[in-house]
Amino acid sequence: MVIAFVASCILSPSAFATNTPCSGKKGGIDHCQGSAFICRDGSVSASKKSCEAEMGSIGLFGSSATEMQPTTSPSCSCRSGSYCTGPRGGQYCMTDDGSKSYLRR
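and the corresponding structure tokens:
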């Protein structure tokens, strides 16, 4: 019985599952903006991995050498590579559907 339990744990598909940037509802990686992963839904991934390190400087997703830059304009789209700073110091950009996507600190 113990052997059957150990075998089911080793051969379980969930044992091979890994978390990847922009997984699930985010639709996968769209492109890199410096070290940040920009997802297909227009949000920024909260992954601690570096997009440039994972994809290379000339990667499959068209890595951009510039990091996300602060902006003072009201338009701070994640796809544009710019972000806004909120009244309490939080840094965010706007996704395609108009919601805020906060950047990691």
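(Above: one complete record from the training split.) The mean pLDDT is 79.
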